[in-house]
Each structure stands twice: as structure tokens, then as C-alpha cells.
Design a protein that fits this description.
- By secondary structure, the chain is an alpha+beta fold.
- The chain folds into 4 domains: 155 residues, Sandwich (Immunoglobulin-like); 133 residues, Neutral Protease, domain 2; 69 residues; 128 residues, Alpha Horseshoe (Serine Threonine Protein Phosphatase 5, Tetratricopeptide repeat).
- It is built from 17 helices and 29 strands.
- The strands form 8 sheets. The chain has an 8-stranded mixed sheet with strand order 5-4-7-2-1-10-13-12, with no helix packed on it.
- Helix 16 runs antiparallel to helix 17.
């Protein structure tokens, strides 16, 4: 077969990639809008086979350069540069095989454009060449950062005053945030340094975020036994108070701080707890699945525990259920596990409906099924054993099964691999008095197609209460409660931990929503008219569905029918983004029907509404917002007809 030394050796990915050390000296040159640096990457081959090639994540372009040496010898990367494709890693062939147990050192000089400001500040992620293993890993960093003196800086590392470097151990990404207009508050939560970067207009909000972050870290440490890192920074985000995101390990961005008064204090405390929770799930324990519903759901569970302990508004978490439930009512296919090809074609708000809404619903329902103690054991076990590793649904299911001794395939298969939904209702309550005892018989009917036990609580006049579980194999359960006092009320899911759809979907409602979801946004033609007639006949009450139907009718030039569809949107959801857009679309249609006075009236109503955001219609190149309304008040809408 020839000399084995001449066999082409391909790049391969270890099951557990080696943990690398990054020593980086980097200069932020604001005058040239450029970042320049030199990094040394070292790691030991801890696998059982030689490594012949490495891959670097570094999007090469005219504005991004690098020079590499290995073991002190320059590496000619010109041939590989000619082969590298957009958004693909750069392959490096090692001069010699890196044998098991051996260490390698790469020295890389790099430079890149800093890019545009984000939220008015510098937010740098993936700013340096990084070893690529096809999925995130934990690595160790020591970064010396030179930036203009006027800048306030936060990084994923904690500053070592002696060396002047930012150090971070076991982090997924090392981020940098810097800005001239920023100010800094700091406090300690035990041994964790908490930084809050803010603008002057956001000072009041920043103070609350800082106090909350300290409290959240204390709470999570008491709940989970540890906090994963010695530093946390909160930084500004978008100008609208709409949530936040984990920007990098140890850095979370929270939107809308300068508009603090637009949200209640409970919102700001909750969103802080929510984003800090992702430092456990997503950063410390990483996600193995796509889409990443699991790390989102487990993170939301953490902030729900904090919210309950601090008495925050329960509606903050009910909102996650509501988004998912609304998706079901709209006929959306919320199946979680799908082929990548299907995920790429999704055209609804998958992030809010499935990843956040259904993701949290699954975790909350699982706790209800296996019990709080068993769930917390599984939760804690994953945190204790999976530092720097990835957790997926299959592994999490196995952990839960081991903690409970139950086969939970029935639960996970329904929630992850189907579009079934949870709907139960109390069909009847019968009360009687027998031998000095009050007897209450409750009949609970399964009205959805997802089967699981549902908690049922009976409350009595003496303040006592009793709880029982339905049997999921029965469509009609009969539960009996005996008490000393008469019954006051019966509740399903008394702790509000389940996404129960109540009232249940009617076949017509579900059918109509699915029919509208299946309509193409363009080219539906007479089919849209047929669906419109059925929707009117069934008296459909779902605003999103009426909105899409209105757009498909407009596309087919059925203007009168489209006008009626958008009136329905306003009837059922007058103050939402759809309600705003529906007013504007009524104006468009009235303009097209030469009813300008009526059109102007609709535009004026839309102009007086609160700024609920922007709706895009990419099929027509339209962006519907308040600026668009101002133009329409001056100039009638004209349709650009198809060629």
C-alpha cells in the first residue's frame, strides 16, 4: 500500500477538543478604526491519536490579516488562503504531527477593521483568530488590552492589577466592550466583581441593574452551590427596552436602559436574572442541539426561581407560555426537533414561539411530571458534571430518567417531536354530603392531543386544600375529594406551571389557522379569496391570521376583501404591532380604491398610536413604521405593479 508517511491526513475533530491557552496583546486603534494584536496559542494533544492539521476561525478579507508561525518557524499559508471559502475556517497543515501528550505553540500576528459601532459603543466578539473545532469549547485567556485613555472597558476577564492583563479561565468567548461615553459602577457579590457600564441617561437603570445582579448572583450561588466566574459585566444595548442577550462569557447586554421608566422595576430585575442565568446555561454548560431550546429553557427556569423568591410579577413568565400558545392558536407547527433543511425554511417567529416559549414550557412541564425534587437533582447534576461540555436533549432525558427511575420517552417524544398541544378542562363538578363528610367529584376532560398528568386542586371554606393528579391514559378522569368543609373552587394547574390552552381549540379554528399558514405570501390568487370566505364563515378571531390573509389578498389585488381582513385585525388586536400595521394597510387599500379622505383618517389613527415597532414586508420592499406613516399622510400610497 506504499509508505504510510505519504498518506494524506485530514483534519479531524476530537470528541473532547484540547483546552487551549490564549495569550494576547491587542491594541484598539480608534483613529484607524483597526484592531491589531499578537497572540500565542498553546495546547497539549490530550487525544489518543496524532493531530496533523488545525483549523482557525478567522474570516479573511482585505481588512483582516494574519501571519502564523509554529514552533518559531513561519508557516506559508498562501496556498491555504487561496482555497479558503467565505465563512469557512482556515486549515493549517502542521510541519510535524503533534503526537499524543505533546504541546504545540502557535504565534499569530493579526489585524482587522473594528467595524461599525453597535448601540453607540464598541462591542467586539470573534475579534482574534481562534482554534476551530466545529462547536464551542472552553479555553483560558490572558489579554493585555491597549485602548484610548478616554475609554471605559469591560471584558470577559478580570483585571490582574499586577500584570495589567485581563484573565479568564474556562470561557466560551472572550468579548470586549469599550466606549467613550460610558461610565462605570461596580460592586461585589461575595468574591464576584460586578461591573455595570452605562450612559449618563441610563444611570438610574444601571444602579438597579447593579443591585439586582449582586442579589441574583447571591441567590444563584445559594441555589446551585456556586457561581461559575469571578466577574460579571452588564452593558448597554438597543435604545428600546425589549430584553437583552448574553453578548459573551461574563458580559450581558440589556436593552433600553435610557428608557427606564417605560418598564416596571420588576421587568428590569427579571431581565437581569434572565441574562445572568445564561452564564450557567449556554456559557458554563453549552448547548449541543439546534435549535437551542434546552439552554434557553433551563436558563428561564433559573430566573423563574429567582422571580418567585423575590415576589416578582408572575406575568413575566406567563408571557413565555402565551407566545407559544398564540403560535398554536395561529396554526404554527411548533415541532422542536426538525431537519436542518426545514429549520432554514421557517418563516414565523421561531425564536419567541418555539425556542423561548415552547422551550420554557417543556422544562416547566417536565418539573411538574417528575416532581420538583427529582428535577432539581437532574438540574444540579448537569451543572456539577458538565462544565465546558455540551448538553443536548437526549443526554438531559437520560439524566432525568436516571434520577427518577422512569422511562420518559413518552414525555420527550410528544413535546419535542410532535406539534401536539396541552389542553384539559373541568367538565363537571358534583358536590354531596355523606356521613359528616363533604364529597366533591371532579371530572377532568382531555381536550388537546398531548397526554400528561395535570395537577387538580380543590379549595375548601376552612382554608384547606387538596391536590390530585389526572391519569394521562384516560381522556376523562374522575377525581374524588373528601373534606370537612364545603368546596369553594377547583383549579387545574394551581401553580400555573403548564401551558394549558383554555379555551381549547375548535377544529374550525385550528383548520383555518393551518390553511392560512399554508398560503404563500405572494401568488395565492383566488385561493386566498376562498380561505377569506371560510374565515368569515367561521368567525375566526386570530389577528395574526387575519393579517397574513389581508396581505395575500392585497397581493392578488382583492382590495375590498383585504380591507375587511385588516379591519378584523384591528377588531381583535388594536394596540399591537399588527394593529398598527393593519391601520396603515387600510390606508394603503383605501388610497388604491380612490378613497383618500378615509385613507388619511386611518393614517392619522396609526400616527397617534404608541410606537409599537416596525413591520417589514420584504416581498414588496416595504418597511411600515411611524416614518412611513408621515410620508403617507402627505403622499397617497401607490402600488408598484409586477412586471
Amino acid at each position: 500500500m506504499g509508505d504510510s508517511q505519504n498518506i494524506q491526513r485530514n483534519f479531524w475533530i476530537p470528541v473532547e477538543p484540547p483546552r487551549a491557552n490564549y495569550f494576547i496583546d491587542v491594541f484598539l486603534d480608534e483613529s484607524r478604526n483597526q484592531i491589531e494584536g499578537k497572540e500565542t496559542i498553546t495546547f497539549v494533544n490530550q487525544t489518543a491519536k496524532p493531530i496533523d492539521k488545525l483549523a482557525l476561525q478567522w474570516g479573511l478579507s482585505r481588512e483582516r490579516n494574519l501571519v502564523v508561525s509554529i514552533g518559531g518557524e513561519p508557516v506559508d499559508i498562501s496556498k491555504m488562503l487561496a482555497k479558503v471559502e467565505a465563512n469557512r475556517p482556515l486549515l493549517l497543515e502542521l510541519p510535524e504531527s503533534l503526537l499524543p501528550g505533546e504541546e504545540i505553540e502557535l504565534v499569530i500576528d493579526f489585524s482587522a477593521s473594528i467595524g461599525e459601532l453597535r448601540y453607540g459603543i464598541r462591542m467586539l466578539i470573534e475579534w482574534h483568530p481562534r482554534l476551530w473545532w466545529d462547536y464551542p469549547t472552553h479555553d483560558d485567556f490572558e489579554v493585555k488590552l491597549s485602548a484610548p485613555e478616554s475609554y471605559i472597558v469591560a471584558t470577559s476577564g478580570r483585571l490582574d492589577e499586577t500584570s495589567g492583563t485581563y484573565r479568564a479561565c474556562g470561557v466560551k468567548q472572550f468579548g470586549i466592550v469599550a466606549g467613550q461615553r460610558l461610565k462605570l459602577l461596580e460592586a461585589m457579590s461575595g468574591d464576584v466583581l460586578v461591573h455595570t457600564l452605562y450612559t449618563e441617561r441610563g444611570r438610574v437603570c444601571a444602579q438597579l441593574l447593579l443591585e439586582t445582579a449582586v442579589d441574583v448572583i447571591d441567590f444563584y450561588r445559594s441555589e446551585f452551590g456556586f457561581y461559575p466566574q469571578p466577574i460579571l459585566s452588564t452593558v448597554p444595548g438597543d435604545d428600546r427596552p425589549m430584553g437583552g442577550f448574553p453578548f459573551a462569557t461574563n458580559i450581558v447586554s440589556i436593552h433600553g436602559q435610557e428608557k427606564f421608566d417605560e418598564k416596571p422595576k420588576d421587568f428590569w430585575r427579571w431581565i437581569t436574572a434572565h441574562e445572568v442565568g445564561h452564564q450557567y446555561w449556554g456559557e458554563y454548560v453549552m448547548e449541543a442541539d439546534n435549535p437551542g431550546w434546552l439552554w434557553i429553557g433551563l436558563g428561564i427556569y433559573a430566573d423563574r426561581e429567582y422571580s418567585r423568591a423575590r415576589g416578582l410579577n408572575e406575568e413575566l413568565h406567563q408571557g413565555f407560555f402565551n407566545r407559544y400558545i398564540k403560535g398554536i392558536r395561529d396554526g404554527t407547527d411548533t415541532t422542536v426537533e426538525r431537519p436542518l433543511e426545514q429549520l432554514a425554511k421557517i418563516n414565523f417567529d421561531h425564536n419567541n414561539i418555539v425556542i423561548h416559549g415552547k422551550g420554557f414550557a417543556i422544562i416547566s412541564a417536565l418539573e411538574s411530571v417528575i416532581g420538583r425534587d427529582a428535577f432539581r437533582r437532574a438540574y444540579q447534576r448537569c451543572l456539577q458534571t458538565l462544565e465546558g461540555r455540551r448538553l443536548g436533549a437526549r443526554k438531559f432525558q437520560k439524566v432525568c430518567e436516571e434520577e427518577t427511575g422512569q422511562d420518559l420517552e413518552w414525555f420527550f417524544s410528544q413535546w419535542l417531536r410532535t406539534n401536539r398541544y396541552l389542553s384539559y378542562q373541568i367538565a363537571a363538578v358534583e358536590k354531596s354530603h355523606q356521613a359528616n363528610c363533604h364529597v366533591t367529584t371532579v371530572r377532568v376532560e382531555q381536550t388537546g392531543n398531548l397526554e400528561m398528568p395535570i395537577p387538580v386542586e380543590a379549595c375548601f371554606e376552612d382554608g384547606s386544600h387538596q391536590c390530585a393528579l389526572t391519569e394521562p391514559l384516560l381522556r376523562m378522569n374522575e377525581l374524588t375529594f373528601e373534606s370537612d368543609a364545603p368546596l369553594v373552587e377547583v383549579q387545574l394547574d394551581p401553580e400555573k406551571t403548564l401551558p394549558l390552552i383554555d379555551p381549547p381549540l375548535t377544529p374550525n379554528e385550528l383548520e383555518m389557522s393551518q390553511m392560512i399558514q399554508e398560503l404563500p405570501w405572494t401568488g395565492s390568487g383566488e385561493r386566498a379569496v376562498d380561505v377569506f370566505k371560510k374565515a368569515c364563515e367561521y368567525d375566526m378571531k386570530t389577528a395574526d391570521s387575519w393579517g397574513k390573509l389581508g396581505l395575500t389578498l392585497y397581493d392578488g389585488e382583492y382590495y375590498e376583501e383585504a380591507l375587511e381582513a385588516f379591519r378584523k385585525v384591528v377588531e381583535f388586536e388594536p394596540k399591537s404591532i399588527w394593529g398598527f400595521a393593519a391601520r396603515v394597510w387600510q390606508g394603503h387599500l383605501l388610497d388604491l380604491l380612490d378613497r383618500r379622505d378615509e385613507a388619511v383618517e386611518q393614517y392619522r389613527i396609526a400616527q397617534e398610536m404608541e410606537d409599537v415597532g416596525t413591520m417589514r414586508h420584504d416581498q414588496y420592499g416595504l418597511v411600515i413604521n411611524q416614518e412611513w406613516v408621515k410620508v403617507r399622510l402627505q403622499t397617497p400610497f401607490q402600488r408598484k405593479m409586477k412586471a
